[in-house]
Amino acid sequence: MSLAELESTIAAMVQKGRGILAADESAPTIAKRFASIGVVSNEESRRIWRSLLAGTEGLGEYISGLILFEESLDQRTDKQTSIPEAAWAQKIVPGIKVDKGKIPLALSPGDLITQGLDGLAERLRVYKAQGARFAKWREVYAIDKNVPSQHGIAANAEMLARYAAVCQAEGLVPIVEPEVLMDGCHDIERHAEVTEAVQQAVFQALARHNVVLELMILKPNMVLPGKECRRADPDEVARATLNVLKRCVPAAVPSINFLSGGQEPIEATANLNALNQQAPNAPWQLTISYGRALQQPALQAWQGKAENSLAAQQALLKRAHLNHLAMLGEYQADKEDN
Ligand code: 5MM
Predict the structure, then answer these.
(1) In this structure, are strands 217-218 and 102-104 parallel, antiparallel, or unpaired?
(2) Is 25 close to ligand 1, i.e. is its CB under 6 Å away?
(3) Which residue is catalytic, options 25, 139, 158, 177?
(4) Counted domains in the chain
(5) Cβ within 8 Å of residue 121, ≥6 positions away
(6) Model confidence over 205-233: pLDDT tens digits?
(7) Ligand 1 center to residue 164 CA distance, Å?
(8) Positions in the chain whose pLDDT score sits under 70
(9) Domain holding 294: CATH number?
(10) Which of 66, 115, 138 is the pocket-test mutation for ligand 1 (most atoms within 8 Å of CB)?
(11) CA 181 – CA 149 distance, rounded (Å)
(12) Is 177 a catalytic residue?
């Protein structure tokens, strides 16, 4: 493990007022996102879209990391630079989703598990040579009456910790993403209970596997009521989320970069702002690693048409700026109109 290498990546990624853009949708997910605007997903349409995101002028002011999907690492923008080089040009660190997606956990009905550990070290060496400096792995937990089970929580934590240890050994900063879904009709207390159990298990597993907490980033869900039932206001979300984080996340972790998880873009910004207002002196940076909540307005503006590229980039930049204000606890709803 090269400590200096990992420290320099963390220093470039963890900066007040900046966050991460997740553009690492796997093939089925990006196909779904493109279908919502009538665009067919193929190598070329994905190249155009991700080049557009990485090439957004000014994005580096608010974004310090860009998570890519494998194929994007050696795709080229129209200016003939690679997508990772386009990110670096704005001091945005390129990273890579390295998990291979989720499957049902055998003999554990309702639990899921993420695949991809076999050959991970070898893959990381290739990704690093292509410019990636950090990695991301997501474990997914659905909520139901007896789900996730204790066994499911333990198995998922073990996967995240093993992945993180391999990343650090290979000189890539791991983003550890345990996502407790907001799908369904659970109340906010149940989401808090599951999120707490999941995060406790994850940090115990990280300790067992000697993962250096100072050299990783946590990408958790916020604590929310099930989205089919009701929306909570930002102060309630921030209170419930901070209660869990304070119990589970050691102060050594430098940055907590939330996923948006199906929240509306404005909702995700307002919730982040409340978090930073309620915890201005939190030991960790409270920021974003949003996918949908950053990309959705830009996708709507784009519609797959070259003549809309600038409008799409402006929509992305606007969301990134508003989230930057939320990272400082300075966002106000009326700023949406400017
Ligand atoms: C961007 O989507 C990522 C990959 O998801 P799939 O493997 O399902 O295609 C995903 O891990 C994403 O980074 C997180 O869920 C955060 O994105 P959101 O949209 O929830 O902010």
Answers:
(1) unpaired
(2) yes
(3) 177
(4) 1
(5) 166, 169, 170
(6) 999 999 999 999 999 999 999 999 888 99
(7) 18
(8) none
(9) 3.20.20.70
(10) 138
(11) 15
(12) yes
